[in-house]
Amino acid sequence: MISRAHCRRFRMLATVVCVLLFLPVPRVRADEILLTVHILEKHVCDRFTLSSAEGLNITTGSTVTPSSGSVTISSTSEGLILTMDDRTTIIPSGRAIFTPLAPEMPITVFIKESSLTRSYRGDITVTCNEAGPIIINRVSLSDYLASVVAGEMGGIDEEALMAQAIISRTWVLTHMKSHETADLCDLTHCQSYSGADEETPAAVRAIKKTEGLIVTYGGEPATVFYHACAGGMTTSPKYVWGGPDIPYLVPCLLYTSPSPRDRTRSRMPSSA
């Protein structure tokens, strides 16, 4: 039997077993499209710090200002307040874009209040509203997947990681623009995304080996789901959360055994 800890690694879905086996999976040029991800929504306070190993370019309107050190950002009714290189600047527009001077280097976000540090590839846009700062990470799909696949699956079998890469890539293409502020969020409402710190060499290899591969149905990206822990069998979304009746998402036995700590009951829906 598989423990809950191991079960987390098998974030497979019926579509991995059923859909991948029977639907055409064409190669598309998608991995370098840019996504916007609303990050740290559950963590951000009114003050945090951004930095990158080689420094940052800070764009406010048409002005670009380089900074060799860290930038501390806070939010007030007047807009964003940036403290960098021993000077403070108020951005009345409440919007600033931070780009690493060395594109290959990630941007590190540090929130002192919660002692949280995370690093993100791509660039970061900070805006503010009445509730405080909003942090948006613009990142390529391939870099996004490197974090998601590692975070969702862990360091397990290469074929499993490749299956997760295909499912996660497909999921993104069918769920773009899921939020008002960005294409996606970094929570399990979308997919678990923690930035560059989550990446593993195995996940990166899986993404490269499946580059551009997605699941399709009728020539379009398929609707796919996956879960954290398997009960041994799946069923149609319409019986679980009132989702759509999707012809290829049918009850399917999984190859993993449920954890003895997972108390599950199952029954087939009646024909009525």
Note down, in words, how this protein is organized.
With 272 residues, the protein is an alpha+beta fold. It is built from 5 helices and 17 strands. The chain has a 7-stranded mixed sheet. Strands 7-6-5-2-9-10 form a 6-stranded antiparallel sheet, with no helix packed on it. The protein has a two-stranded antiparallel ribbon with strand order 14-15. Helix 3 (141-153) crosses helix 4, helix 3 crosses helix 5 (201-209) and helix 4 (158-174) crosses helix 5.
Uncertain spans:
1-26, 266-272
> Can you count the beta strands?
17
* Mean of pLDDT: 82
By helix and strand content, what is the structural category?
alpha+beta
TL;DR?
This protein has helices spanning 4-7, 14-22, 141-153, 158-174, 201-209, and strands at residues 34-39, 47-51, 56-60, 63-67, 71-76, 79-84, 87-91, 95-100, 107-111, 116-120, 123-129, 132-140, 184-185, 216-217, 220-221, 233-234, 252-253. The protein has 272 residues and is an alpha+beta fold.
